[in-house]
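Figure 3 (text version): structure tokens given as input.
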């Protein structure tokens, strides 16, 4: 495969999608993030599937395990999902007895999502598998580069909250 930093002029006769690395889109941050995300999601979904989860349900479970007791509305806002998607994710996890809904002591109209003991056990096993998958996906980066990428992505991921109003 063509190294993304190489010019098409330096590589003779590529075929298939490899030749597309010579197009201008490889300088588009949105494209690069989307492509890296697609690769990362595919691998993470494969890893999470070993535990009966997908990335989204794994993420909700991870947050529930953190003992932050998020409301479904908070989950929807944080994950940038429609509230109906959160309901479906929590329903799925609840049907497997991995989480439960409890009344929010601050707002009786809302529910908080809490991990069960089984949910904690499944999360612990899934986390180990997903983390191993991440090591594979991001293995092309040094530890320092991975930490820098994580720092930059955290900043980018938090920025839209300030921009969307």
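Below: residues designed for each position.
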């Amino acid at each position: 495969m063509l190294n993304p930093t190489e010019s098409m002029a330096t590589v003779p006769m590529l075929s298939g999608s490899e030749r597309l690395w010579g197009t201008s889109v490889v300088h588009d941050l949105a494209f690069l993030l989307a492509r890296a995300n697609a690769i990362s999601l595919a691998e993470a979904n494969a890893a999470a599937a070993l535990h009966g989860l997908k990335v989204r349900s794994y993420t909700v479970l991870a947050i529930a395990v953190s003992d932050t007791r998020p409301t479904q509305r908070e989950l929807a806002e944080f994950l940038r999902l429609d509230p109906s998607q959160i309901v479906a994710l929590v329903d799925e996890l609840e049907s497997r007895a991995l989480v439960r809904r409890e009344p929010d002591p601050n707002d009786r109209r809302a529910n908080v999502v809490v991990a069960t003991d089984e949910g904690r056990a499944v999360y612990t096993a899934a986390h180990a598998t997903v983390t191993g998958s991440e090591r594979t996906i991001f293995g092309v980066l040094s530890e320092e580069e991975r930490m820098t990428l994580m720092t930059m992505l955290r900043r980018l991921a938090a920025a839209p909250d300030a921009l969307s109003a």
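The chain has a mean pLDDT of 89.
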